[in-house]
Amino acid sequence: MITRKPLRVIGGDLRTARLEPDPSGVKLRPSDGPPGELFIGPGWADAHAHVYDGMTEIGVAADQVGLATGVHLLGDAGSAGAATLDGLVKYVIPAADVRIRAWVNIGSYGLVHMRETADIRDVDVDATLAAIDRHRDVVCGVKVRSSGLIVGAMGLQPLQLGRLVAREAGLPLMVHIGEPPPLIEDVLDLLGDGDVVTHCYHGKTGHPWRADGRPSPALDRALNRGVRLDVGHGAASFAGDVARRAIAAGFPPHSISTDVHVRNIRGPVHDLPTTMTKLLACGLPLDDVIAAVTRTPREILGAPEPWLDEDGLVRHATVFRLADTPPPHRVYTDARGAVLDPTAHIVPVATIRNGTLERG
Ligand SMILES: [Zn+2]
């Protein structure tokens, strides 16, 4: 029934629609119909994933978490550093159907080594700047994992050096937060406008939220400077109760991302729509869920792209439905095993690229 023809819709960010056969191909018919109808909006982006398959311990195949799950654009979050970025650019990115941008790890070997910045000899400021210069078209920022198990005795140094590189290169920092040391206040005080805090609702000791869901003073200051909150669900970094309280207090995430890798793709993360559904279950309205996987992550990844052209023709989009039952065998748990209980489930149905319906 669905054919590869251009689709035409009238502007807007998110609308309900029905896919209908039409003499000229498939048309999206605007609809105010009941739940179960299709929604269409810009193609989804996941700002934090790990897709350096074959090189790092944790990489998954990019296309496994790409268009098949509604995702058009992935940010690989520090799988590669100065010494390994060339391989990502040469072998992984061109082989993938999904578009990939890269956060360069301040640790030269990226996530080949899971304590990538525990040794100062594995951080090379000039080599990282040179790698960024070689791949300006791919690199969206600098990644630093700034938590105790990773940095060890290096403390704040990887973050300070990552910040130096990011500022020198004119790019944002993405900072992984987790267990101290370093203290979260010291981490946040180093961040500025456009930088991204990933694992923002991690819920471990020393997280930056008060019991009433409002940000700690250091996070409040950071947000006022323009720092952005990214979910980065991961295997151990998303606490549903922390997210629920923060959202209720008026502090939703700027971007929803998976931190998908081999240790969480079979649960609790699965994919981006599962993570989106969890945020919906934590009280984030659907429009905000969609903005957090479209407009904002595209800005963060330095790849903004209008989804409609001037004539209203769809350039890129993800078509999805809200199901009232979960996909088969899907249990929605946070990273601590707490069950979230969504009443609606976001299920991708099709993607449209270059005006062409690619899956349906
Ligand atoms: Zn990650």
From TrEMBL:
* Regions annotated as coiled coil: none
Tell me which Gene3D superfamilies the record gives: Metal-dependent hydrolases, Urease, subunit C, domain 1
Among InterPro entries, the record links this protein to: Deacetylase_Atu3266-like, Metal-dep_hydrolase_composite, Metal_Hydrolase
Superkingdom, natural source: Bacteria
Q: Which SUPFAM superfamilies match?
A: Metallo-dependent hydrolases
Q: What is this protein called?
A: Amidohydrolase/deacetylase family metallohydrolase
